Inverse folding.
């Protein structure tokens, strides 16, 4: 006790503003449940596992620690399994994960002798008792970002229900035998509570479901409420009632009265259809992770070094899949695991290692690659929770720091709650992650593992004068369009479309086994990147006028790891986002040597540096009347439409609408257009996002234009630049001879032969709704990483990838 009293000056009583770590080691993934428990420094309030607490003592000299241990309580073998009745986790009636209960003990430990004193004890000094009580009562700084509560919100009473006007048109709804009034479908039917029309529900992302007749009827009539037939029983609260203007499932307190208006006796009806919540619950209860891309095959779970899963923190599958692939590469493995020990990373870290990217990357690499945390627990592995890493990597990107969930506003979206979340895109995270790693290694380019993904793209433009311009930019990914017209199964597609049309006319759905998808060779996608493209309104300094130029592109350098991004998400007619349902035939080995750019060739003449003296281009941008009229026709304010067109440089209706929707609440949205407003707007985007795009090799003004056109989204902005090369070419060649930049000397180069080493697949209708998994080729076999589950892949779905990772073949 005297030893403890001699160290009281090194003990602090935490203030409310102090961050207290007591659930996870800051340099490893040890927890109070790990062997040896967790030691909380009673001066810094950082936590350390048994193997690492000595490092902290050596670094800080802090001797007093609260030792927290949790040991499992015995569980009765006959504990019954309960069938879930509520879409929730950890609540009464929800999913029961049969979680082990733990008993927690506390001791005061004094280093370096590891003298242990029991807590609580009246013999302990008052300062110790107050400090420990404050730590135990405080909410831990690293407290897990609650596993998805996953509970459907309580339905709200519709504002349209109490005053609903029903039309007495003689409609009497029978107790059974219902059919859609327009297509004769006999399931997924909705009764409009205003006029009694029975119509089918919405078409699902995979083509199943209804034919959209109920929603189309609402658009024609504005009749707001509909109830799903087959869900009406004596328990009216369980009936599915949907409000179209509120775009949500709602409660209708007068439902009995509204049903009686059409002669429906709800007390005699039997349940024949699942409600939305029940369908989601059923999907998730029966969700088989193999089915994501493994054709229902039985997968052998894997454990050991390199086979550690990542716990889903809530909408974090985009991060987990990307990290699993990245840390399989030699560059990241060497930088943060083989060539850097945890102890070295901790010694180099600042006073709070939880905020240091290098420390957290080393911690993550050790957790994934050491095998220490890849142990079978109840026939599965728990995976490591990358909370501290996520907190650091997301600090400069608000989208990645949240766990926001947003239900898709599609009642008949029959793919389950697993997909009804607003998740971030794996591509966007990959680019942000590499950017942060590059920044963290500034000044040490030789240590920067992100450079193994970096390469230089060279674009060549030729105007009708015959003169040329060259432009170079660096990138981490090669984004490829998917030329559907190059599909190799056109005959099967024609037959399928014919069958589909016939079944639709009969009001029948296609079986999943009947669906035929286009198959496009990867070679065709690569050829599309290299093909010639016309650039309209290109200002030629040789002709002193705007004309049409021909653009081609190639790679000036070949990276160690080539990442191919398949552009599966497009905008279809009506500016509706759509995911291409397509297979990509991907070979295990590719050779892109023919894609290497050649630079300025003998006999080629560069475009002049500047145009004729006195040539001045007008900088005043006028809103495109075509864009403005289309937006105005959708019901938007005309002035707002003009501003949207101007602030997106007349890029198109899609870009203008994106800007408009994100600026509806701007305080100056109704102010008259100023001649200087465009220049001001271009400077009002997030500077961090601008810097990120500049780091990819884009000019600042082009980056600002793209971000404004894309609502500040970096991935969409990158996509915008790729799909609007005239924006870059005008910057690079309107007043310059070649626009060439010196290649980054740190960018790797070598052979153009590559082998497939990993791919990330995506399920769901868009990048912001769905689930990501990774397949990685390691130790001679394909392995699937699905959050915390890791297994030997039986049938890797190489043709369903979203991001493909190729490794250079070294002879």
């Amino acid at each position: 006790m005297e030893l403890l009293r001699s160290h009281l000056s090194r003990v602090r009583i935490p203030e409310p503003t102090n961050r207290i770590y007591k659930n996870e080691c800051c340099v490893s993934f040890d927890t109070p449940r790990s062997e040896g428990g967790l030691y909380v420094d009673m001066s810094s309030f950082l936590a350390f596992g048994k193997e690492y607490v000595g490092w902290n003592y050596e670094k800080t000299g802090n001797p007093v620690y609260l030792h927290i241990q949790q040991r499992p309580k015995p569980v009765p073998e006959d504990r019954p399994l309960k069938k879930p009745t509520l879409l929730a986790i950890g609540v009464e009636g929800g999913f029961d994960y049969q979680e082990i209960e733990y008993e927690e003990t506390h001791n005061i430990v004094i280093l370096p002798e590891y003298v242990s004193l029991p807590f609580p004890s009246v013999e302990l000094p008052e300062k110790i008792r107050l400090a420990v009580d404050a730590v135990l009562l405080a909410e831990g700084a690293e407290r897990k970002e609650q596993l998805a509560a996953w509970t459907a919100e309580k339905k709200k009473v519709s504002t349209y229900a109490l005053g609903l006007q029903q039309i007495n048109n003689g409609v009497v709804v029978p107790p059974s035998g219902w059919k859609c009034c327009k297509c004769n479908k006999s399931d997924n039917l909705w009764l409009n509570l205003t006029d009694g029309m029975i119509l089918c529900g919405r078409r699902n992302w995979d083509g199943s479901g209804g034919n959209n007749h109920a929603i189309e009827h609402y658009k024609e009539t504005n009749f707001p409420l509909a109830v799903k037939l087959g869900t009406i029983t004596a328990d009216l609260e369980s009936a599915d009632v949907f409000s179209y203007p509120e775009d949500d499932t709602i409660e209708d307190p007068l439902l009995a009265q509204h049903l009686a208006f059409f002669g429906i006796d709800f007390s005699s009806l039997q349940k024949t259809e699942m409600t939305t919540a029940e369908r989601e619950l059923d999907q998730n209860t029966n969700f088989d992770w193999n089915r994501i891309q493994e054709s229902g095959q039985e997968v052998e779970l894997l454990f050991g070094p390199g086979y550690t899963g990542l716990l889903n923190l809530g909408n974090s599958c985009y991060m987990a899949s990307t990290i699993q692939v990245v840390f399989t590469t030699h560059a990241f493995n060497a930088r943060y695991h083989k060539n850097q020990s945890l102890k070295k990373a901790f010694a180099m870290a600042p006073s709070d290692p939880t905020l240091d990217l290098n420390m957290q990357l080393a911690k993550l690499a050790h957790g994934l690659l050491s095998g220490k945390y890849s142990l079978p627990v109840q026939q599965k592995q728990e995976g490591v929770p990358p909370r501290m890493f996520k907190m650091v990597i997301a600090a400069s990107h608000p989208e990645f720091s949240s766990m926001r969930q947003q239900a898709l506003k599609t009642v008949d979206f029959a793919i389950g709650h697993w997909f009804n979340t607003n998740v971030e895109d794996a591509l966007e995270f990959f680019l942000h992650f590499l950017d942060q790693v590059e920044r963290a290694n500034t000044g040490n380019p030789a240590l920067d593992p992100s450079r193994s993904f970096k390469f230089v793209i060279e674009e060549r433009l030729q105007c009708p004068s015959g003169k040329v311009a060259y432009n170079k930019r660096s990138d981490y990914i090669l984004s490829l369009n998917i030329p559907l017209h190059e599909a190799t199964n056109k005959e099967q597609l024609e037959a399928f479309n014919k069958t589909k049309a016939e079944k639709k006319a009969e009001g029948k759905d296609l079986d999943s086994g009947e669906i035929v998808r286009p198959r496009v060779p990867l070679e065709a996608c690569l050829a599309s990147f290299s093909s010639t493209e016309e650039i309209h309104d290109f200002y030629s300094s040789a002709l002193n006028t705007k004309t049409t130029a021909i653009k081609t592109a190639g790679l000036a350098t070949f990276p160690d790891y080539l990442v191919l991004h398949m552009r599966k998400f497009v905008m279809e007619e009506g500016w509706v986002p759509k995911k291409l349902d397509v297979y990509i035939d991907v070979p295990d080995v590719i050779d892109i040597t023919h894609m290497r750019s050649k630079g300025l060739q003998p006999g080629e003449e560069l475009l002049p540096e500047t145009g004729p003296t006195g040539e001045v281009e007008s900088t005043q941008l006028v809103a495109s009347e075509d864009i403005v009229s289309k937006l105005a026709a959708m019901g938007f304010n005309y002035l707002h439409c003009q501003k949207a067109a101007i602030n997106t440089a007349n890029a198109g209706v899609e870009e203008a609408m994106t800007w408009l929707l994100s600026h509806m609440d701007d305080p100056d949205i109704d102010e008259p257009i100023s001649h200087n407003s465009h220049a001001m707007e271009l400077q009002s985007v997030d500077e961090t996002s601008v810097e990120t795009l500049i780091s990819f090799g884009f000019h600042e003004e082009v980056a600002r234009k793209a971000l404004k056109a894309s609502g500040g989204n970096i991935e969409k902005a990158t996509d915008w630049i790729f799909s609007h090369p005239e924006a870059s070419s005008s910057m690079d060649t309107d007043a310059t001879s070649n626009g060439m930049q010196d290649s980054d000397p740190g960018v790797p180069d070598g052979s153009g032969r590559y082998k497939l080493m990993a791919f990330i697949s995506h399920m769901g209708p868009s990048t912001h709704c769905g689930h990501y998994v990774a397949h990685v080729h390691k130790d001679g076999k394909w392995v699937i990483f699905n959050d915390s589950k890791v297994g030997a892949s039986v049938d890797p779905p190489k043709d369903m990838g979203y991001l493909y990772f190729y490794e250079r073949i070294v002879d």
